[in-house]
Write a structure and sequence with these properties.
Radius of gyration of chain B: 19 Å
CATH superfamily of one domain in chain B: NADH:ubiquinone oxidoreductase Nqo5 subunit
Mean pLDDT of chain A: 84
Distance between the termini of chain A: 72 Å
CATH class of the largest domain in chain A: Mainly Alpha
Structural class of chain A: mainly alpha
Number of strands of chain A: 8
Number of strands of chain B: 7
Helix content of chain A: 40-55%
Largest sheet of chain B: 5 strands, mixed
Oligomer: heterodimer
Distance between the termini of chain B: 36 Å
Number of helices of chain B: 3
Radius of gyration of chain A: 34 Å
CATH topology of one domain in chain B: Beta Polymerase, domain 2
Helix content of chain B: 10-25%
Chain lengths: 455, 178
């Protein structure tokens, strides 16, 4: 620092000294004033309080939230525990009243339709089965039916019945999962354990037949992967009896529970017109008094040869959607029992060497069979150019498969019309003008599987 | 190379016949027993309105697209000028228990088509998905944002010329990303 600067510092210091003195004087005066004020306050307390009250006016009103631009947008998820995975919902609120709902999806998008274009028709089943992971066999079934339609391939009767048996068992497992998670979402925690218990029994049977609990790749173009095991009839009937005897517990736990009813009855009401206009299908459409089930309307497999009822309800609320899924389990049990009774004999896969691998015993003794097996599982089979759309009734509604073939061994385009994706659009009319506390009940009653929403 | 059409131009289906009578450019195709009507792009929304108002079709269950950029063999129906993109709509009549599929051709240089959301509001998500993954713009769609991909994503993944992954993977001791 230079000398000049030091000089300047010195002068400033002298000036500051005066300033400090002045300030000290001012502070003393101020403190005397404060002391006066304190004394005044102590001596004249009542006057002071009266004065304060007249100055600040507290307004308490219980009226409605002021309108215009005072709405609030609340973000649910994508990690909210009640959203069954990664569903994100944006809710616009006016106080507690829901004005608008917008599901934001794509957090589980893994490009499965793009993947399908890289896989042969033989491998395709392993891909589609992972879309709706709560009912993998419906995905495999719709895919296999679409490929077979492009090939103009007839599958043997036994394969058709095995497929129907497995599809219905899967429907039971999926609806039991819904019972469990629906209870869980609404705070009926013990329900989760009951639903899981019965679902596990069904999955144990599925595992015994297919080798896996989920993502089974059991239903393949041309038939099924393996025949049913010895003694499957007894296993299936025992399973049906067990589930049937345990289902009344569900009603005792939930339907006779006034708290649970309070949260479900009359909540998230949907009319038939609204349901149709938002492309809803399955239990959501049926809960509005519209008895539409593809198993009856456009029978596929052998659904026209078994006796079952389409369950539908009239009110279109969360409780009806719950009830429909509960009673559909009874209908599935009915179909499974008829499958046991009427299961035809014969082969479990098509007698077409183009799509069917040779039996294991032949591979051991024949070079040609080994080559055939190798070619089928490395290159797959070719499908003539064409396009088709096949729709079946999955536990969530209409699942459709649109395949375009360009004559090669891999699909040029594979598109799955997901019922959950379309059913999510029903959240807007269901939640409109209800209160935010019902949002979880409504999301739960839609029963979306995000793997199939995002694909 | 075109595949021979089993029954060219003969609708065995009364809904398809009605569509053919109404729209001059419409072409019928029997696809494995399913009625398919190829439409001109200008008739896309009118045909949907016709199906809803005069043929009791209650839902357009699905809208999707196909990119035919690299097909080995393509199904070409007589009377239809093939373009790169095809937009496919599946209609369902609950009253008549009937389905019909309409397909229109969309060229690569002007990938736009009229939105069906005014006629069937339920196709909202399906059209957003197609716009997201194929880059085909639906004119008149109320919410034309991306559905599955992130908002800042560049490209349309289901186009055949879009590489399967944009994200380069770098391994240890690699000279560069591959």
């Amino acid at each position: 620092m230079s000398d000049g600067a030091r000089d300047t510092d010195a002068t400033v210091t002298r000036d500051e000294l005066h300033e400090v003195e002045d300030e000290f004087a001012r502070e003393v005066a101020a403190s005397e004033k404060r002391e006066d004020a304190r004394l005044l306050h102590q001596t004249d307390e009542a006057d002071q309080e009266m004065g304060d009250r007249s100055m600040t006016e507290v307004v308490l009103t219980g009226g409605p939230w002021p309108d215009d631009d005072d709405t609030m947008i609340v973000n649910f998820g994508p990690q909210h525990p009640s959203t069954h995975g990664v569903l994100r919902v944006m809710v616009e609120l006016d106080g507690e009243r829901v004005l608008r709902v917008k599901p934001v999806i794509g957090y589980l998008h893994t490009g499965m339709e793009k993947t399908a274009e890289q896989l042969t028709y033989v491998q395709g089943g392993t891909n589609v089965t992972r879309m709706d992971y709560a009912s993998p066999l419906s995905n495999e079934l719709v895919y296999a039916l679409a490929v077979e339609r492009l090939l103009d391939l007839e599958v043997p009767e036994r394969a058709t019945w095995i497929r129907m048996l497995m599809a219905e068992l899967n429907r039971m497992a999926s609806h039991l999962l819904f019972q469990a998670t629906n209870g869980l979402d609404l705070g009926a925690l013990s329900m989760m354990l009951y639903g899981w218990r019965e679902r596990e029994m069904v999955l144990r049977f599925i595992e015994k037949v297919t080798g896996l609990r989920m993502n089974t790749n059991y239903i393949r173009p041309g038939g099924v992967a393996a025949d049913l095991h010895d003694g499957w009839e007894d296993d299936a009937l025992e399973l049906c009896d067990l589930v049937e005897t345990n289902l009344p517990d569900y009603e005792a736990l939930l339907v006779e529970n006034p708290i649970w009813l309070e949260r479900m009855v009359g909540v998230g009401v949907l009319s038939t017109e609204e349901a149709l206009s938002v492309n809803a299908s399955g239990p959501i459409l049926r809960s509005t008094g519209f008895g539409w089930d593809l198993r009856k309307a456009e029978p596929y497999l052998a659904y026209d040869e078994v006796d079952f009822d389409v369950v539908y309800a009239q009110n279109g609320d969360c409780f009806d959607r719950f009830r429909i899924r509960l009673y559909e389990i009874y209908e599935s049990i009915k179909i499974v029992r008829q499958c046991v009774e009427k299961m035809p004999g014969g082969d479990y896969r098509a007698d077409d060497l183009k799509v069917t691998p040779p039996p294991r015993a032949r591979i051991n003794e024949s070079m040609e069979a080994l080559i055939h097996h190798f070619k089928l599982f490395t290159e797959g089979f070719r499908v003539p150019a064409g396009e088709t759309y096949v729709a079946i009734e999955s536990p969530r509604g209409e699942i459709g498969c649109y395949i375009v073939s360009d004559g090669s061994g891999k699909p040029a385009r594979l598109h799955i019309r997901g019922p959950s994706l379309n059913n999510l659009q029903a959240m807007e009319p269901m939640l409109k003008d209800t209160i935010i506390a019902d949002a979880v009940a409504v999301i739960s009653s839609v029963d979306p599987i995000l793997g199939e929403v995002d694909r | 190379m075109s595949v021979e059409n089993p029954r060219p131009g003969v609708p065995g289906d009364d809904v398809a016949a009605a569509l053919l009578e109404r729209f001059d450019s419409a072409v019928f195709h029997d696809s494995h027993g399913q009625a398919v009507v190829y439409l001109d792009r200008d008739d896309w929304r009118d045909a949907a309105t016709f199906l809803r108002d005069e043929q009791e079709f209650t839902q357009c269950v699905d809208v999707t697209a196909v990119d035919h950029l690299v097909d080995d063999t393509r199904l070409v129906v007589d009377g239809v000028e093939p373009e790169r993109f095809e937009i496919v709509a599946n209609f369902l009549s609950h009253e008549r228990v009937r389905r019909i599929r309409t397909i229109t051709q969309v060229p690569a240089d002007a990938p736009t088509v009229a939105s069906l959301t005014e006629v069937f509001p339920g196709v909202n998500f399906a059209e957003r998905e197609v716009q997201d993954l194929f880059g085909v713009v639906f004119e008149g769609h109320p919410d034309p944002s991306r559905l599955l991909m992130p908002d800042d994503w560049v490209g349309h993944p289901l186009r055949k010329d879009d590489p399967p992954s944009h994200v380069p993977v770098t391994f240890k001791e690699d000279p560069g990303p591959r």
